Amino acid sequence: MKPEWSCLKDVKIIDLSQLLPGPHATTLLMQLGADVIKVEQPGTGDTARQLGPAVFAQFNRGKQSVALDLKSDEGRAAFLRLVTEADAVVEGFRPGVMQRLGLGYDALAQANPAIVLCSVSGFGQTGPYANHAGHDLNYLALAGYWSVPVQVDDKVSRPRVRVSDYAASGYAALALAVAVMSARQHGRGQHLDVSIHDAILSWTAHGAWAARGYEDRPHESPTVMPDNDIFETSDGRHLAMGILENKFWLNLCEAIGADFPALLDARFTSRPGRQQHKPEVNGLLCGIFRSRSLAQWAAVFAPFDLPFSPALSARELFADPHVKARNMVREVPSENAIALNFPVKFSLGLPASDDHVPALGENNT
């Protein structure tokens, strides 16, 4: 049941996209009340289906599936009939593919002047990289993700989630919501050009701009904070200590200064002082945290106001009391899998989740 207040409760979106960015964007809008019809290639469907049912379900549960061969006249005609009753189309092809199929923005607008076409591509519809192949790591590399020094002992390592893809999906969902509302007010749709590279660049650019002056001496960059870091413990676990405000350093000293008096050095009392002695401060902290287990540190820090967090294992994550209390994750026993709720709580509620995963073409008429 969709809440009456939801502005997306009668919005219909056609999802031509595959893998992560487009399907995740349409999933977000579906969680806010939109109906999503997934149009897939007959026989193979979304490439995510080939990566396993759990991967496909993650980004496509609750959608309808229609299988259409868009290279055929019959398939294109059926697609355009869907467009006449839709608010938006989301596609993730390389630039020019929709035009070659005869389904570019002008063709869609002829069928439905209020249609919004959202094109999600690696580098956007224009520019020298527009037709380049790419995936998450490529966009991160070209957006300067690793150009910003952040640790005394800095390393280039791959992120554990597809950061740029999720950045793009969030911007795509926001832009789609705005464009659909605008089209409903004015009767005229538009073409949204979502570049995954642009999306992650909007997150990295300020840090990279500041890092330009420190490329030959990265330790001196203000983005390197010796006390705001991840530290290994004696049992091979890790903890995060997010000391930014100076009050937290003082609280850390109160908590363990008696056992580790080197922390009380007058040079380290202020943030500017610690920034002047980064290798020494970071090395001191590394040695301190390696002296006890993660559980011991958790017990020590529990009474203090400190931005301390254990780096949770996968099993610990789903048993975490805060994760459970926030009701973000729900189990889907029939699939031995999980589904995620929308990560914003609406006081008036959101539509009930639909955990059905569509079979390829099950909604063909």
From TrEMBL:
One of its GO terms (molecular function) is catalytic activity. InterPro entries: CoA-transferase_III (IPR050509), CoA-Trfase_fam_III (IPR003673), CoA-Trfase_III_dom3_sf (IPR044855), CoA-Trfase_III_dom_1_sf (IPR023606). SUPFAM superfamilies: CoA-transferase family III (CaiB/BaiF) (SSF89796). Gene3D superfamilies: Crotonobetainyl-coa:carnitine coa-transferase, domain 1, formyl-coa transferase, domain 3. This is CAIB/BAIF family protein.
